[in-house]
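FORM 7B - TANDEM STRUCTURE REPORT

SECTION 1: FIRST PROTEIN
SEQUENCE AND TOKENS:
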Amino acid sequence: MTPTPRSLRSLLFADRYRSDKEDVVANFYVPAFSVATTYSRAVGYFTSTSLALFARGIAEFAERGGTMRLVASPQLNEDDIVDMERGYDVREIVERATLRELDRDSPDAVLDGLGLLGRLIAEARLDVKLAFVEQEGRVGIYHEKIGIFRDGSGDLIAFTGSSNETYGGLMANFESVEVYRGWVPGDGKRALRMETDFQALWADQTPHLTVERFPDVARERLINLGNNRPQRPLPGRDDALTPPKTVTTGPARLALPEGLKVRDYQRQAVEAWFRQQGRGIIKMATGTGKTKTAMIATTKLAEVLHQREQPLVLLILAPLTHLVDQWITEVEGFGVRPVAVYESSQKWLATVEEQLAAARMGQRSVVALVATNASFAGEKFQSVLSRISLPILVIADEAHNLGSSTYRSLLPSNATYRLALSATPERWFDDDGTDALVNYFGPIAFELGIGKAIEMGALCRYVYVPRLIELNHTETTLYADLSARIARLAVGNSLDDIDPNSPLGFLLRQRAGVLGHAAGKLSILTADLKARRDEWFQLIYCAEGRRPSEPADPPGPKQIDEVMNLVGNELHLSAHSYVSETPRAERSVLLRRFASGDSLRALVAMRCLDEGVDIPDARVGYLLASSSNPRQFIQRRGRLLRPAEGKERAEIIDYLAVPPSGLPTNFNVERALLVRELERANEFGRLSENYATTLQVLRPLKERYQLMNM
């Protein structure tokens, strides 16, 4: 065995260099050195024996008393990168990617090398971290190659550059390595700078880079492999120069996921849609599986077109980005990775054009696009859409949103197949928009109401608890003043079709705000929360904006701030707000924490957690917001009725603020407002398990306003 050099200086002058690639690396391994280096691949991405040789080099270095810190790039595939950009937990994705590499069928040489790495990790001779680029919502590969060697005497060597561990990199590329010696004038400053850069990298302090610990699960897997795998001699040559085998796979096609149980009503909905020549509206109660029903229909349509040797362009439209993310996950489950069309067109335009070109040439059977309504309406996407001559299926999620004048004129006339999904396709106070949706998508093909869905077990049973809360003195005064002004403006007008942007519409919103922000709701909420303080999966819906005040007074507090203070500071319950300003990445984390059942007891929402958010574990809902919009309160009820394991029933607690009796206001105007509140209570109570109790609670209010017929 060649004598080991005594120091870095003697190493550089020792006549030990040979042409063999592995020995060039091994020459840097000297006693009592600590090594810091980076490598641009995850462990499982090495060619079969280059990993073994890499491990052997570290082992030889460790035998001489050295330690090594290694920063590598995880082998992220397209799924991993998209999930990161969609805000999913980075640690979970890195762990998944690392385990995927370790789970691959590998030759013995690779397994021997992995086992050796595991033993070095167990002996604390090797520590690994994983790095990737994360900038402006995009994820990239960490491809830097630097190394720092320092011995016990304080001498330093740094190098940068290397060839890629690929066939093309080793056979065709022209590569170079620069080496800086710390004791040489001019070199020393560069070497120290590189050492400082690496220390910042190791501490996750490098701008635009994210550095994660090597996943604990993968670390234990390597250590166990090292303990259980026999220590065989490692190969003497690297097979990296052997051209890799070409693996060909056919184009992705839609298929029903393995284990998916198609319910009878879903099959009936699909058949009804096909009977209408692939056009129509599926009106199904929130939580009954509209998304899967639509994907089942899409899969069957794609099969028919495939038999005709025709591709399918699937365009899914959703109002919000988090719904786009949910649809992407759903479509992936059916075997095709869709293109997310939102935010900057630089992220999706080239991919869309490429996939459409492949479909036109018969190289792709399905092109799946999932777009927000806003991006769909953009000029660039409309230009792409207008040039498509292939069969198009448009699926509109929460289709009522597309009935607005902004969107309905942009729906593609060249779409042969059309499917609208909504629990409430009728647009509130907008008959023209509702008619436009029916004219474009076709009539209702299938309908499943909430009562039938509960009866068949597609939704869970629930109890409904209305709480009647009287306004306090200040609120009553403001309520009476607003009612008087409304009465003067409402002469000869119906309050059912008032323009919300008119002066009368503004006053109506103000008065509804008085009811929604009634201070008495918080004291009752406190008692209700205390009675359920040991329960998980609770949702609290707050009124929008601030508490209304007299014109000369400053606006009141936000109800959501008051509720968060109550839940967190006073009751010491784990909770988090969930509002429109909550970043998309944070929303994903919050929903996962909520679903875990051991992190967040409650989510406190304002203008969120309505359309499309999938939180089946939610069991208790507190409705502080006084919404008379039937779509909004139906959506909120739907969030709570989705079935989940261990969930027998849900509970809905509705806080209804009412003025005190004997208030000197216009009776008819006041009665018209209370009609809307009672319509919501009736709708909730009608299908609950305790409807008789609900009627008893509401009876005094109905008698006061002569509404016993409701």
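SECTION 2: SECOND PROTEIN
SEQUENCE AND TOKENS:
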Amino acid sequence: MGSPALKRIGFLATQFDEYYQNLVFHGALEEARRYPVQLIFYEGSNTNTLSKAGALDDTAFNLAAKTQLDGLIVMTNTMGSSFSRERIGGYLASFSHIPIVSIGLPFENAFTLCPQASGGMAQLTSHLVREHGRKIFLFLAGPKGHPESEARKAEFVSTLAELLPQAEPTVVYADFLEERAYERTLSLIEQDWCFDAVVAANDQMAFGSIRALEENAIHVPSQVSVTGFDDIPYSVLSIPALTTIHQPTSELGRRAVQYLASEWKLNLFDQSHIVADLTTDVVIRQSCGCMNAATGSAESAVAQLQVSLRKLFSLQVGERSRSGVLRRIEAAVVRTFKLEEILSELARGLRRLGIRFAAVVMIDEQSKGTDRSSLYMHLAGDEVTILAPNGQQFSTSTLLPQGLPDDFQAYVCEPLQFGSEQMGYFICTPDANDMHVYATLRDLITTSMKGALIMSLEKDRELTLQREVNKRTGELTSANKLLKKEIAQRKELERELLEVSNNIMTRIGQDIHDDLCQDLAGLGMLAATLESTLKKNGSPSAQQLAKLISESALRSAYTAKQIARDLFPSDLQDNGFVASVMQLVKSKNLTDGDTITLEVQPGFQIDDKEQSIQLYRIIQEALNNAIKHAKASHITVRLSCDAHSMLVEVADNGVGFELKKGKSAAGMGLKILTYRANLIGGTLHFSSTSQGTVVSCRVGFQEGV
């Protein structure tokens, strides 16, 4: 743990890998080495926010508000590209208990450092008009309404109006971004390029414009002069070297730390000294058309170009080396979705980049806020601690469980943000020479850890789902067994009911045939004897009555015999199924006329007793329904078969009946027919229209038959 005297300064900006902000930070870091202070750079943008103007991720800024800081340096000029002045002011209000330095924009509760930029743009514009004869100007501005950009634009426009009253410069807003300036310049080239001078409000927009012009064979500076603003290190290395306006960029960072040190009584600087001499200067190089600012000689220009090329080559070699390390880290972490392996590979890659200290922290999801966090990986020199998958919980205000080590002067804090989800943060020492490394590491950690967490959650969900599926499967299996048992019991009950019904009908039929029919026949014979006796004795009225009794008794005997035959088809056992159906059709024709026809396919035969009785009952019931209700003039009974099944069918040309949708049968009679068909594994089918009704049952042949 550090000494109590150590002061911690939060440095808030939008991008660590943007040259201007990086220079200010390193100026602050250079000055901080003179005092017992520690710098923490909080980055306030990510891949998504950089791709669209007006958007800024304030996750890191909110994290800074939770951290125990002693002072604050805020790049309000770069924040102003995305945040409104009111939003920045509201944010700064949360730090009112500590001294604040605002770089760029003045705020009531902050000490403001702002270079005296007036005059530089006027000198540069005058140089282009008077020295190079430029007349048609394109001005590349920052975001609309940005104070610094608007001030530079206003100075340019007013100066040009004085020098060339007839000039009408074109103003295009490119948001201080190199890629956006490249796109805007390309668009103008595609329309109809007519400009001989491009004045950019910062160096990066100038680089983007030069790239677009050279790609389209519009040469700088022979055809077009291009100038910038800021004088970042790459300005002198560009080809051609960029004419620009030098800002005291690093000095801004140094003066900011000096002010905070004076507030803590760590130095004796007067505040008037801190704000003095922050002026801008015009730096003339080759991009405006000048061969060399110092001597104007071609030899000096060539020598300077050679130096620039050597520096560029050296930078490219270093960047290629670091890019190779980053690619190896990326390749390693994407091979696995295991959190422990990802963090181990990350630690190995960080050591190869020369980073001495790093930590990966995730916001505690259980606390439903950002006050609690969990440490997942800790790198200190050669020692690596992996705490995944659960992590070590601590209060976010300390940034790490034991606080930041005092061993290092500065840290970079990168927010881990996936879309709108705040995941955590990555904090490390700024040891890598390539300032682009940190944003790349941030995005790599974010995506790989998100993938690992998703896979972990998915596995948990799979296990939970599997347990639930197993539970439900067990319940369904038990329910299915019970259902099968109930179905079997119901079928058995139906079979028993129909068997009881058949037995009762058979017994009643036998009783009627054996007893009632015999008694009625005997009664008829006795009545006939009485008639004969009365005839001999000469009693006509008594004779007539006896005759009527005899005829009625014989008709009742015949009817009872028919009922008995319907209830007990004894022909099924004696003569077989086809003969029984023929007898059934014949008996119905005798009572209802010759309206029923029997069609039997040759070879049709049923040997199974159960199938015979049930199919016979189906035909019998269907015939009775047709005779009673169909009002048919003709009924056809068909018996047919094929290689796999047999079919019995009763069809009439009657009035038909309506079958209710969604129901297999209507009425008790049809339901009984359906039950009978199911008992023998058959399929019953009904069709009925106003032209008639067809009732059929198809039964498959049993194996071995």
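SECTION 3: OBSERVATIONS ON SECOND PROTEIN
Residues 46-56, 311-318, 662-666 have pLDDT under 50 and may be disordered.
The two ends are 95 Å apart (CA to CA).

SECTION 4: SIGNATURE
Preparer initials: ____
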